[in-house]
Amino acid sequence: MWRLAEPLLGSSYVPSDDEWIIANVDIKKNRLILLNSFAPQVGWEGGNSNVKLRVSGTIGKPVVAGKISFSDGRMSPALLDESVPGVRGEIGVERNGVISFKSLSGRCDGAVLRSK
């Protein structure tokens, strides 16, 4: 990513893969489309998300941990014939690279679906 951004910034500095990084990422009220990069099989269509991640480690081996919460969403999973409105929940991003749904709820055919 640095190598892509470097020419745009007009800098000649290119960090090595063993340089340490620490970054806190806090994105509020982002569109749920961003979640498609974490769970593309779900088919996120609308809603809002809040992203809170910490990136540490080296450029060559970054470690990402944190959570992504979302609300007022709509998703169209491939295994269902219709979209699911009113989706809310939280995705955890663990330091070991595991991404998991901590909670998930939505409406389908008038009933509330919940998973924890």
What does this structure look like?
With 116 residues, the protein is mainly β. It has one domain (19-108). It has 1 helix and 6 strands; from the N terminus they run H-E-E-E-E-E-E. It has one helix at residues 2-9, and strands at residues 20-31, 44-58, 62-75, 84-93, 99-108, 111-115. A 6-stranded antiparallel beta sheet has the order 1-2-3-4-5-6, with no helix packed on it. The longest helix has 8 residues, at 2-9.
Short description:
The protein has 116 residues and is mostly beta strands. The protein has one helix at residues 2-9; strands at 20-31, 44-58, 62-75, 84-93, 99-108, 111-115. It has one domain (19-108).
